[in-house]
Amino acid sequence: MILSLEHIYKDYVQDKLVVPVLKDINLSVEEGEYVAIMGPSGSGKTTLMNIIGCLDHPTSGEYILDGKSVLGLRDNALSDVRLNSIGFVFQTFQLMPRESALENVCLPLSYAGVKKSEKKERAMKALERVGLKERALFKPTQLSGGQKQRVAIARAMINNPKILLADEPTGALDQKSGEQIMRLFKKLNEEGVTIIMITHDPKIAQNAKKIYYIIDGVISEDEEKARSTAEALEKEEAMEDDFLIENEKSDNEKQEVASDENS
Ligand SMILES: Nc1ncnc2c1ncn2[C@@H]1O[C@H](COP(=O)(O)OP(=O)(O)O)[C@@H](O)[C@H]1O
Ligand SMILES: [Mg+2]
Predict the structure, then answer these.
(1) pLDDT tens across 199-256, in order?
(2) Ligand 1 centroid to 1 CA: how many Å?
(3) In sequence order, what are the beta bridge partners of 199?
(4) What is the residue extent of each domain of the chain?
């Protein structure tokens, strides 16, 4: 097993209100798997990806990555994990606009303290791997969306991470470029890379070997189960809210009575 999430919860606090976003997420991924996580907008996909990618901490739960618990790690240990174990691909590519494709791909190597000549060589190989050797000196503005995403994939893979995490990797692309990215993912997976891909597009999800559904912060391989569990939890939360409001009301009434008695 390359990673496992156990009873992961994530709450956000907004205007003093606790908003539960991830609810008891249990997810294990084997090395070499190709997993899609599907769900509607706002269901918690990016929040989950940020936790898997060690970009954010859960509110509670356990996260084991490559045999080690990552939740207790300090920030610099966490950034080592990110740098060496995980490659990231985002919907909007996140390339440095003023740097060439080659320089963008080199970026993760700067942190790793690799020599300049070796950096260039490795980055060229990575660009070759995604079929963009000829575009090495192009800036992002001179590349199509699909080409930009391939540069981003080359950058994600430069340190040979075991895991590729992709958040809506085809979300900003036309169908043809999207399919090209999916072929690239298939190739990487065949080479042994574990892929976790987040998408709201059923067609894109079909490329993975296993699909999980996340609905209102509840995950399951069974879409109906995710939905019904989420609905049940929603009801419970609503009842708790009503209970709190009722309590607040009666507290206020008590106070009013008390202040009347005092006056
Ligand atoms: N930093 C944050 N602070 C407060 N609420 C957040 C924050 N990030 C996300 N949320 C809320 O968490 C829920 C899930 O968001 P997200 O994980 O981005 O969903 P998805 O990627 O599936 O569209 C949304 O209701 C969103 O408003
Ligand atoms: Mg998202």
Answers:
(1) 999 999 999 999 999 999 999 999 999 999 999 998 988 888 787 777 877 777 777 7
(2) 28
(3) 38
(4) 3-95+164-221
CATH number of 3-95+164-221: 3.40.50.300
Q: Is 12 in the pocket of ligand 1 (CB under 6 A)?
A: yes
Q: How far is the CA of 213 from the centre of ligand 2 (A)?
A: 14
For residue 119, CA distances in Å to 44, 106, 133 come to 36, 6, 15
Tell me which residue has its CA closest to atom 27 in ligand 1.
42
Strand 86-90 and strand 163-167: the pairing is parallel
Query: pLDDT tens digit string along 104-140?
Result: 999 998 776 788 899 999 999 999 999 999 999 999 9
The answer to pTM > 0.70 is yes
Nearest ligand to the C-alpha atom of residue 90: 2
